[in-house]
Amino acid sequence: xxxxxxxxxxxxxxxxxxxxxxxxxxxxxxxxxxxxxxxxxxxxxxxxxxxxxxxxxxxxxxxxxxxxxxxxxxxxxxxxxxxxxxxxxxxxxxxxxxxxxxxxxxxxxxxxxxxxxxxxxxxxxxxxxxxxxxxxxxxxxxxxxxxxxxxxxxxxxxxxxxxxxxxxxxxxxxxxxxxxxxxxxxxxxxxxxxxxxxxxxxxxxxxxxxxxxxxxxxxxxxxxxxxxxxxxxxxxxxxxxxxxxxxxxxxxxxxxxxxxxxxxxxxxxxxxxxxxxxxxxxxxxx
Length: 286
Prior knowledge:
Elements: H1 4-17, E1 23-28, H2 41-48, E2 53-59, E3 62-67, E4 75-79, E5 84-90, E6 99-105, E7 109-115, E8 121-125, H3 149-158, H4 163-167, H5 178-188, H6 201-220, E9 262-266, E10 269-273
Antiparallel strand pairs: 1-6, 2-3, 3-4, 4-8, 5-7, 6-7, 9-10
Helix pairs in contact: 1-6, 5-6
């Protein structure tokens, strides 16, 4: 699933290419991509035609386009799911496979939402320009200037769970997914099963710093693209996968100590750690 850097790359592309543009038409090619819009596809179309997109915003892994009035308007809310893409194309360009929704723009181009697996989707959010109420429960992310490090540390140590589970909890901190959790934990020398209640303040500060650093570096490189699904609005892939130290490197030597990276099953996913640099906590520290 695209994580914060990949979604932020898309947001920046939308900011460059569609903000200030008016919507002249909407084509809903697959109603499954509007399942979060309860009134249905015709209502979605009627609400958008003639509106102007005035800002592109993000909270964690959610994107939204503010409409007409950035301070008090409505918005188009979007989640990319596992395979969603927001693509800017000329109207005459060959449509991508798995095209689901098209927003036709007043400059002759189109904003195309393609989604192979249809886990993502779009919806109209009333009064959602500043923050859609549908995602008000999502926490801020470490790249947000208003992210409260002290509050995050307090919430973290009040819980009794593995530190990676906490990083993936979008109500605690948003935008961190499997890839960047593993990378930040490797950099912090913390095992994913370390109990959050036992984390020391210095360890939490170090972890937050590495989460911020790894996502900033990934963002600078266009995100992590393991396949053709994770692309920016121009269809280009990121290349941070070349810089990964832990994730996806099972059996390869740790770049810090040379010990082979270990892969463990974790929450229907995988976790990648260095057994030497990130020792599994003793039972009393879980």
